[in-house]
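Q: Joint fold for the lines below.
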Amino acid sequence: MDAGRLASSLRGGDRQALAKAISVVENDWAGAAALLKAVGPPGRAFILGVTGPPGTGKSTLVGRLVRAYRKRGMRVGVIAVDPTSPVTGGALLGDRIRMQAYAGDDGVFIRSMASRGWSGGLSRATSGALQLMDAAGFDIVILETVGIGQADIEVVAVAHAVLVVLMPGLGDDVQASKAGLMEVGDVYVVNKSDLEGADGMVVSLLGMLSGSKGRSAPVVKVSALKGDGIEKLEAAVDAVRVRFDRSPELRLHSVRGMILETARGDAMQRLERLSAPKADKLAKLVLEGKLAVSEAARMLAK
Amino acid sequence: MDAGRLASSLRGGDRQALAKAISVVENDWAGAAALLKAVGPPGRAFILGVTGPPGTGKSTLVGRLVRAYRKRGMRVGVIAVDPTSPVTGGALLGDRIRMQAYAGDDGVFIRSMASRGWSGGLSRATSGALQLMDAAGFDIVILETVGIGQADIEVVAVAHAVLVVLMPGLGDDVQASKAGLMEVGDVYVVNKSDLEGADGMVVSLLGMLSGSKGRSAPVVKVSALKGDGIEKLEAAVDAVRVRFDRSPELRLHSVRGMILETARGDAMQRLERLSAPKADKLAKLVLEGKLAVSEAARMLAK
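A: Joint structure:
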């Protein structure tokens, strides 16, 4: 692979070059680092993180947003973060299939990326894919997670704005406060607005938001399935995008997030390489009372 | 703090000593390492991990199990892993209050522990609390997570057996296959059995389980709220406990998990100490095109 040529192809709008470049970065193939260096500095595209508990309809909502932005002539990239089973390591094809609805449109580029449960391997790949899509000239990159873990925290770290998707009728412990979502959203969406309790939920969210340090994130009620409320959501996101366009601090925040997540991914990768036989030997010594767990952990990491 | 004296008090059944010891370990106070060394090797208590998506009623189910085991005269410890907001850092009081129902019973010890979103700080604290409860002579320690992240993977790493709690009526993407839960359970619970679709879910789980490498984990339908099906669940868990009693390999697996999670926590703690001003400086250099993100990450970690 010629990193310089691949970088200039994808900057020129070559979709296949972009797809190949993301694979290089996702799989950490030789030349990945050179490629990310060759595409140049990030900071043009608006990165919209979409997070929230599983089952709230994030993917459907992202589909609505993609269509809405396309109507306005914007080029839209989507990175859908799939959780990969820690045991089988297999990627989930469901999302990929669902996303093929836009396959014919050159202004849309969608990529599912597997998050690697144990290792935090997501970080570097996601951060890399974001840089590549940014270089490829997309106006907006939507970063969607499935809402079950570490990936959501990473989205907050690298996004310019975060859209938190909730729905009525989930148990208390599914809701935003528990997952730490009340502090991270720039826009809150109550999806499935035809379900009972939607209005009550909007009220309670507004109450919680006003209670937390005077934040005033908007709460928008939508039905992603029916398409209700999408214009209002677009307007709310637009208001945040205006802030982004004016704020070098937001761009800095995102790049800082990419650096930190990459450092985290590096550290996890080092840990993953730790020898399993060595861990077994140390575990035996711990069981025999010859070593404390913390001592064994230090010896393992050495 | 005299680590040796505190260790011997908690081994003698002193609840206040145990509570204090867990605080020492949770907050990583001076003497934490000495204390964990002084309590001696782990390996006596049966560690039952309880995981599954949020909202499936894990806490209520754990309450049922605690009562059931107490009736049989077993001493039960519970560690409920709370997610802490990455922003406020505050612990969630809800679980703690709920758990006070058993406060008068000396055979039950319940502790909520905050998981620290960014840092993986959960690992070391949970692993330490497990060692302390084991040393305090509990027959069974139930490790309950809220099902929204990294903590669940850690539960699988250190538990002797894993109980996966699901419920009918959640969207496809909430379910076990996506979260990698189909590979990790020793017993599957379909909770809220009075909801529509419970039987269908049992059938589909059995189908998925038989499809995955000949595993034969039982699927038990319960209503934790009403108390239906709890005896069947007890019997299913008992069958796994018998395996544990006979298997030195299972004990080894758990200790290996504690070592790995502790090493992971150590690495995350080192990353957390990274200087924020340095990250800002590096982010500026990246935005100016003078440094790639991966180079900045390496420089930050140094």
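Q: Anything notable?
A: Confidence is low (pLDDT under 50) at residues 84-95, 117-121 of chain B. Chain B touches chain A through 80 residues (CB under 8 Å).
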